[in-house]
User: Which sequence fits this backbone?
């Protein structure tokens, strides 16, 4: 089920991304749905358990149903199974007085699923709606995330605004980096926003690195917060 690839592509941390559930959904629909329901039941149990902990204020459900091109799975599956389970996850969390947040890869604008998810969850962490590994692409990413916000209004808090790719990109200066954060805020606005990185941890990298820490402190300074000193 995997296309030809170089030897590096068979390393576990890369290869498992290609053994995708979408392929099983095409090959054997009944088996795929049965497997999805089993995993979703486990996820529901974990969400319920986590939301019962006094030290927990919010539970974030991580999801990978979208790519840059939109939904990975067919519309019938998304509407009949995917959304049904996410409503169960969110309702279980909210019943216990906690906030329900969705971490979602890919372009959630696909088939306007972002509007449906924003009605289900208190917060959304839209991740890879556009490439953001350079300052130029991060600007495009900020514009696209802002367009998502305009499409759905103020139904859910957005957890986004800082490209982790730029934080750990040693060729991007603090000044270049902070420009993208400022642009994101200008496009999105401060309302209903948790300014956060788009992914962490980043494999093999750390926020304690001097340049990465300087970028984090630049964001804190922008927000009127004190610097982090290690």
Assistant:
């Amino acid at each position: 089920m995997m296309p030809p690839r170089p030897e590096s592509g068979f390393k576990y941390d890369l290869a498992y991304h290609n053994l995708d559930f979408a392929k099983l959904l095409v090959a054997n629909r009944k088996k795929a749905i049965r497997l999805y329901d089993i995993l979703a039941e486990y996820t529901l149990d974990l969400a319920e358990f986590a939301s019962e902990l006094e030290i927990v204020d919010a539970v974030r459900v991580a999801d990978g149903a979208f790519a840059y091109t939109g939904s990975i799975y067919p519309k019938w599956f998304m509407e009949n199974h995917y959304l049904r389970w996410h409503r169960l996850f969110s309702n279980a969390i909210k019943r216990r007085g906690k906030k329900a947040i969705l971490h979602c890869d890919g372009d959630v604008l696909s088939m306007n699923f972002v509007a449906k998810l924003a009605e289900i969850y208190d917060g959304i962490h839209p991740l890879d709606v556009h490439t953001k590994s350079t300052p130029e692409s991060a600007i495009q990413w900020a514009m696209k995330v802002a367009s998502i916000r305009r499409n759905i209004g103020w139904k859910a808090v957005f957890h986004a605004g800082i490209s982790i790719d730029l934080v750990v990109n040693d060729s991007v200066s603090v000044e270049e980096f902070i420009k993208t954060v400022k642009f994101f805020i200008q496009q999105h606005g401060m309302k209903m926003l948790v300014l956060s990185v788009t992914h962490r941890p980043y494999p093999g990298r750390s926020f304690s690195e001097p340049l990465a820490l300087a970028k984090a402190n630049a964001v804190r300074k922008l927000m009127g917060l004190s610097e982090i000193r290690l």
Q: What stands out?
A: The beta strands are 58-63, 66-67, 70-71, 99-104, 123-126, 157-162, 193-197. The chain has two domains: 1-105+113-125, 130-230. The radius of gyration is 19 Å. Residues 130-230 form one domain.
